[in-house]
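In the current project phase, we have settled on a layout for protein records. A sample record is reproduced below.
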Amino acid sequence: MAMTTIDIIALVFIFLALVKITVVLVNRKSWLNVSKLFYDYSRESSFLLIILGVIVFFFLLDEMSIVHIIAVIAFSIILLGLAVLQYPREFLHIAKKSSNRKISIFELLYIVFWIILLIWAFVEIIS
């Protein structure tokens, strides 16, 4: 069986997710060190995630339509929402804090990116 790039991306994700789940189940606090490292280097982490996101996005586009990708994002956001709802006070605090400051250039670019994706998917659906 020849594996596609999408298969490899999925396998890497499966492996990393299983490692995280195992570590959290064995010693929940130990994952905090990984999280702290990620947040301590937030600029570098952001850059890495942007690069990985672009690479994965283009591989997905090779196999799927933008409509399928948006549908998968919707499913992922539903799952993420369920996780976030387990910590309502903490996330409400973050939401309140972030609502009191101006939108950064990064946040603005992020919003523009989402608008482009949404319009692209909408146009694909109606055409």
